[in-house]
Amino acid sequence: MGALEGKVAVVTGGASGIGLASARRLASEGARVVVVDANGDGAVRAAESVGGVAVRADVGDAGAWPGIVEAGRALGGFDIAHLNAGVTTGEEDIEKLGDEQYRRILSVNVDGIVFGTRALVPELVAHGGGAIVATSSLAGIVAFAGDPVYTLTKHAVVGFVRAVAPRLAEHGITINAICPGLVDTPLIDGEIRDALAGSGFPLIAAEDVAEAVLGCVLGQDTGQAVVVQLGREPVAYRFGRPPGPRLAGAEGKIPPGWLADAGRAAPDPA
Q1: Closest among 224, 69, 45 to 140, alpha carbons compared
Q2: 213/177 Cα distance (integer angstroms)
Q3: The CATH number, out of the four listed (2.60.120.330, 3.40.50.12160, 3.20.20.100, 3.40.50.720), of the domain defined by the range 8-239
């Protein structure tokens, strides 16, 4: 029996790339998987390959989530979520960024994580807890100038995960962000792929990222940004401690929960 025997998982953006690799890895451990993707045919093919269920949906549409939840309930209810769907703008020059590009990437990369978490938390609570993994990127912890708005969205995912983790922990739910470097997925288009190949730059296999996702699902850590780089074991990124206020008598006056444990800083002495 696998480590996830009897569990039900949802993977968004599951028709290809990291999502498909994650669906396969979770299924290999015994989970029943609901594969969600805007590409309906791709979702069907992916679901068939893992013995799961396909749902065609735009995860950035709040109205799509009740249908996703119902698909999970038909299998017994969700225990695991990999909120993975993501897009890029491919635009380095902010002056050339179109309104539709901007709204679309925010919808998929940010709304999809927030709406998904909001919809799934009650399901996980009903099962006594569970695990959520959100796909961010190395661009979620560094300043990737090649696509500033993609970078914005992936920073948002990391910030959201770190901020919501303490409250979800009260319900036995872990939530972590996966932050891989350049992964061999369809998001790496032909021109970029050719340039990377020409320079000899190796891409991370999607299966390696899926292994890190499984590690988060099975682990007890929460609120982490887990970096996945080629040839290295996945590791939680260590955020620096911000400076505290330099005010006489400020000690102990920072509101509880205002700063995440990973970034908590005591006030400096006056």
Answers
A1: 224
A2: 9
A3: 3.40.50.720
Q: Is 150 in the active site?
A: yes
d(CA 71, CA 65): 10
Q: What is the DSSP letter of 258?
A: S
Neighbours of 74 (CB within 10 A): 12
| End-to-end C-alpha distance for the chain, whole angstroms | 59
Burial 148-166 (b: 16+ CB within 10 A, else e): bbbbbbbbbbbebbbebbe
Q: Is the pTM of this model over 0.70?
A: yes
Residue ranges covered by each domain of the chain: 8-239, 243-270
Instruction: Enumerate residues 6+ apart whose C-beta is below 8 A from 70.
Output: none
CA distance 163 to 159: 6
Neighbour tally for 65: CB within 10 Å: 18
Choosing from 150, 151, 183, 234, which is the catalytic residue? 150
173-221 residue pLDDT tens: 999 999 998 887 776 666 665 555 555 567 889 999 999 999 999 999 9
Q: For 81, list phi and psi in degrees, rounded to 5.
A: -135, 130
Q: Where are the alpha helices (DSSP H) in the chain?
A: 17-28, 40-50, 65-73, 99-106, 112-126, 148-169, 190-199, 206-218
Identity of the amino acid at 17: G
Q: What percentage of the chain's residues is helix, strand, coil (to nearest 5)?
A: 45, 15, 40
Q: CB–CB of 177/158 below 8 Å?
A: yes
Query: For 7-44, how does the pLDDT look when each residue is reduced to its tens digit (9 = 90+)?
Result: 999 999 999 999 999 999 999 999 999 999 999 999 99
Distance between CA atoms of 17 and 210, rounded to whole angstroms? Answer: 10
